[in-house]
Structure prediction request, 449 residues.
Amino acid sequence: MKSKKPIVVLRGNDICFHGITKSLAKSGIPFITVVFTWDGAKSWWSEESRFYKSDIKISNPFTHPNEALLQLIKNGENLISEWGEPLLTLPSSDTNLMFFLNNEKELNPYFRLMGDSEFTSFRNDVGHKYNCYEILSSKNSKLCPKTKRCKSKKDIDTILKEIQYPAIFKPSTKDYGQSFYAKYKGSKAIECNNKEELKNNLIDCINSNFELIVQEKVIFDRVEDEIPFYAYVDQKHNIRIAATGIKELIQPYPFGTANILRLSWHPELLPIAEKVVKKLRWRGILMIEFIRDKKDKKWKVIEINLRPWLFIGFYELFGLKYLGTLYDDWNQNLKEFDGKIICPSKEIIKKSPIHVDINGIIKNWQKQIPINKNSENFDFFYNWLKKYSDFITYPYFDFDDQDPAIRNLSEIFSNNNNLVQGNIEKYFFNPSLLKNLTEEYKSINKNEL
Prediction:
């Protein structure tokens, strides 16, 4: 009897990749990995995991796109021969997602992405930010802030006449080398406060071959007013799983990555999210970025992410089985929707767990964290984290799979002498502490599901 079909997982962002593969393995879902690296790449801490395996190696799509494409096609042919059908594929970063979207004609015969009602199309329409905006803005919808497309210098004069300030600009699509991030030191978007500033930046970006969108900035005051909404959506566009997050620390601020994310639940966003997924005709995992506009108090959609998000492994810890639901849906094993949506329980919300990317924080430590005479001690760092929550989790931290965390933290702190003082082991490698935390997860999940 043939074994269960595997999911193909591409390594791009190591935290996301590790969260996906560990969650799949713990749920008994088979997977095949596609990995690549490059000279000077940082450590892949996921490789220390007992769940890690290197199944398919390809060239780096950024430096050798043609070779990577041919290698993927060849491996796709082998997988079709073995399994008799294209396998569902999960990118773990925007870079390898874009590699698939840009090569849909060549790769679609061998691989499937989520999004389409039949899991057949790669959904380039949603992957392109302006095209996605047009879908969401049809029929006079006010789901999104005013957005303009900038493909060439000819577009700039029109944008300057029609856009209000402050405005932000960002790339319409990502490239394989995250060139926009590199140009702007990790920022995903740039704010401009007047015509001259916006004009000069747009000209500079067009000269650098970026296609952009320009949005009127949605003004908000509190972290509780910028909320990512994480959904699993079935074939009939019903939301089956829903949760939200609070971005407690964004680095670089204000348009970088959430290096501290709090698990939360904002039920008021559910009806808006339902409108979004129906307009997009989406099926699968989806992240919708909401901001509550200070001017009219209404929630606006500023971003759609059509792949598993960075901290998906964090949500899986608490019984929010996005990946298992996706696997069942792909295999047509989902039960008829009964109207009950799985969302974080009161027990989980009461604990207010946070997920902390220590590596991301340390890189910005001197710039963004309040420093005092005791700040070089790791005890200070840990107590600073405790201001956010007593229930702290980490991307590579697992009682049954400790090597990724040990290697990750050892490397981080060996390269940051200002934080090596203090007893790190008592926080991260204490077996009783780890066991207690693991048992607490299990206790919460028994109450949850």
